[in-house]
Amino acid sequence: MLQLTPSNEDELNVYRNIMRTYAQSCIEKSTPEGIVAHLNVAQTVQDWNMVREALGYEKMNFLGVSYGTVGGALYASEYPQHMGNFIIDAIYPRGITNLELVTAQAQAANRLLLRADAYCMNDTTCPFNVNGKGGVPKAFSEVISRANAGNASNTTISASDVRAMVVLAYMSGNPNFPGLNSALYGALNGDWSGLNWADFAPEYLAAVLPVMPTFCSDEYIDDNTWAGFDALIKGAAEVDTADIEYGQVLTTVALCGAWPYPNGSNKPLHLNSPLLLVTADFDYDCPTESSTFEFKQAPNSTLIVRHGDDHVTFQVPGPARSAEIEFLKTGILPKAANEEFMTIYPPGHARGPVANPYTVLTGIEAGDFLQT
C-alpha cells in the first residue's frame, strides 16, 4: 500500500514513479503536441498580458486566491506599469524554502487542532464539550494510539490514514470542526468510518491530479534527494507538537520531484508596487507565515490578517472581505486597524504574532459553517 508520506528512499521512489507515469500520460494525451512543457505560471502571466493588450486596457485589476496568488505576484513583478488594483489572498509565495513551508504547514495543522478544541468548548453538542479545554487534542492522541495498536474496529485503518484524513478531510480548505470532532468520537466508540482514507482518497485524488502539471511545473525543489526530503520530515516534526505528521506539502514535494518540466524558481519576488495582501490566522493550505514572508518582499503593500478559519478570505463575509471589495473598487489601500476579526498592517509595519487559537472567537464571523 502506498505510504501517505514516504518514510524511506524506496517509498519516495514509488511516488516518483507514479508521477513519471502520470506525466507521460499527460504528454501523450495532450494536444497540441508539446503543450505540457508550457503549463507554468510564467507562460500564464504572459498570456494575461497579451489579453490585456488585445483588449486595449492600460491597466489590469486582479484578485488572485490560493495558487492564483503565484501568478498575481509574478505579474506585479513583471508588468508593474500595467497593474491596477491587485489583491493576492491566501498567498503561496515564490522564494520561500521547502523547509519553511513544511514547518509552517505543520504549525498550521497544530493550530487547527486547537481551533477544533476551541470550537468544541463553545458547542454543547460536541461530544468532548464536557471535557473542557484539551478534550479534542487528547481524543486525537488516543485515536492514533488505538490505530497504532491495531484497534481500529474491524477495519484496516492505520494511524497514517487517520493523520491524512484529519488534515485533508477536516482541516484543508474550509475546516469542518464538527465533522472532525464527530469522527474522533466515533472512532473512540468503534465507528472508524469518518477516518477511512480508502473511502476519501478517490474524491481527493480526482480533485488534485488535474492541477499537478501546472503546480509541479512551478514547484521548486531545494534538494531533490532522499536526504533533502528526510530533512523536511525532520524539520516539520520539530514543530509538530500534536504528532499529526501528515503534511500536504510533503506529498507535493515527493511527487513534483519527478515532474519532467520543472520551471520553478527559489528567487523571491521583490514587489515594489502597492498590493493588498490577505491572509487568515488559521489557514492550512496557505499557512499564514507564507503571507508574512510575502509582506517582507513588498515594502509598499498592505497586509490584512483575518482572525478566523478557512482558506481564502474573499469567500468569508465580514470586515476583511469588505476591505478587499472596497480596494478593488477604489484602489485605495485600507488604513491601519486592530479589530476583533481583522488586523490591518500598512506598508512598513511589522506583523504581530499569529493569534492564539483559543482567543479568536468561533462561529459564523470567524468563517465557520461554510461547508458546502
What would you say this structure looks like, in words?
There is one protein chain. The protein is an alpha/beta fold and 372 residues long. Among the domains are: 110-195, no CATH class; 268-272 and 294-307 and 323-372, no CATH class. It is 47% helix and 9% strand. The chain has helices spanning 9-29, 41-55, 68-78, 98-121, 135-148, 159-170, 177-188, 197-208, 212-218, 226-239, 248-256, 288-297, 319-330, and strands at residues 60-65, 83-89, 276-282, 302-309, 337-338, 342-345. The chain has a six-stranded mixed β-sheet, with helices on both faces. The protein is globular and about 65 Å long.
Unreliable stretches covering 5 or more consecutive residues: none
Taking all residues together, what is the mean pLDDT?
Answer: 94
User: How much strand?
Assistant: 5-15%
* Biggest sheet architecture: 6 strands, mixed
Structural class, from helix and strand content? alpha/beta
Radius of gyration: 21 Å
Entry keywords:
372 residues; globular; alpha/beta
Q: Would you kindly provide a brief summary of this structure?
A:
The protein is an alpha/beta fold and 372 residues long.
Write the layout of secondary structure elements.
Layout: H1 9-29, H2 41-55, E1 60-65, H3 68-78, E2 83-89, H4 98-121, H5 135-148, H6 159-170, H7 177-188, H8 197-208, H9 212-218, H10 226-239, H11 248-256, E3 276-282, H12 288-297, E4 302-309, H13 319-330, E5 337-338, E6 342-345
Parallel strand pairs: 1-2, 2-3, 3-4
Antiparallel strand pairs: 4-6, 5-6
